[in-house]
Amino acid sequence: MDTTQIIGYVGALIVGLVLGLIGGGGSILTVPLLVYLLGYNPVVATAYSLFVVGTSSMVGTYQKHKKGLVDFKTGLAFSFPSFVAVYLSRRYLVPGIPETLFSIGDFDITKGMGIMIFFAIIMIIASYSMIKNRKENLELSRSQPYYKTFIQGLIIGTITGIIGAGGGFLYVPALVIWANIPMKKAVGTSLIIVTINSLIGFIGDIQTLDIEWTFLLIFTSISILGIILGVFLSKFISGKKLKKSFGYFVLVMATYIIYKELK
Q1: Are 96 and 15 spatial neighbours (Cβ–Cβ below 8 Å)?
Q2: pLDDT tens digits for 234-256?
Q3: Residue 131: phi, psi to the nearest 5?
Q4: Spatial distance between the Cα atoms of 194 and 160, rounded to a whole number of angstroms
Q5: What is the pLDDT of residue 239?
Q6: What is the DSSP string of 197-209?
Q7: Residue 166: CA atoms inside 13 Å, Cβ hemisphere, count?
Q8: CB–CB of 227/93 below 8 Å?
Q9: Cα separation values, 93 from 96, 240, 251, Å
């Protein structure tokens, strides 16, 4: 095992820790790690990210459920339109994107470059959500109609399908604002949505990509250890402060990705 692989597996542990502590952000670390450190193509990296984040989130869902922090009814309501959008995105939309999107003079904007830049833009939006101070208890008189949840699920599902993210960093604020769920329960509930979305999205990838199963299963197993540790540590660490710090880190990472892709 060389140094790069060791660093990659340490990164897998950190991915799990982040998921366990703040209920999202796993893919924000996984995709850049696989692309820039381990040298995977962005399309393959986003596929692997779906499997890693989905499997790790399944374990996290169980851990949060034992503490009564998962609202399965609301989670499944968001999941249905989302996983349909994620599957269709991974099965048809991503494979259908041309290898060269457009050219500016002699500079070609490729499919991989486009996915990574789009990923960075979503990261910037996510970082704002993490950094911004938000009241935990929003005074909403009622939950929104399901058709709005359905439309929101389709939109978030399509976005997460393209970038290979579980979408926890998008679903947590959505559950707080739209479903009127307290922050701690929103984090737990987001994990069930991330689990379903990610694994069904990955099924779409299996049909179009060759999967390096040995590496993927080792990487995922280490991430699962990380999420178990993260859920345990969440009892002792302020999630609010951690989330804000991670938000700044995500902003720096997004800036780096844009620089790396356009230089």
Answers
A1: no
A2: 777 766 777 777 788 888 888 98
A3: -80, -40
A4: 10
A5: 64
A6: HHHHHHHHHHTTS
A7: 36
A8: no
A9: 5, 36, 27
How many helices (DSSP H) and strands (DSSP E) are in the chain?
Answer: 11, 2
Backbone angles phi, psi at 232, to 5 degrees: -65, -45
Cα–Cα distance, 261 to 263 (Å, whole number): 6
Q: What pLDDT is stored for residue 140 in this prediction?
A: 42
Residue-wise pLDDT for 2-59, tens only, equals 787 788 888 888 888 877 777 666 777 888 889 888 889 988 998 998 899 889 888 8
Q: How far apart are CA 93 and CA 211, in angstroms?
A: 19
Name which of 23, 262, 248 is nearest 124 in CA terms: 248
Q: Are 29 and 123 in contact (CB under 8 A)?
A: no
What is d(CA 182, CA 138) in angstroms, rounded to the nearest whole number?
8
Between the CA atoms of 123, 71, 52 and 97, what dihedral angle is there, to the nearest 10 degrees?
Answer: -50
The number of residues in the chain equals 263
Among 49, 74, 33, 50, smallest CA distance to 187 is for: 74
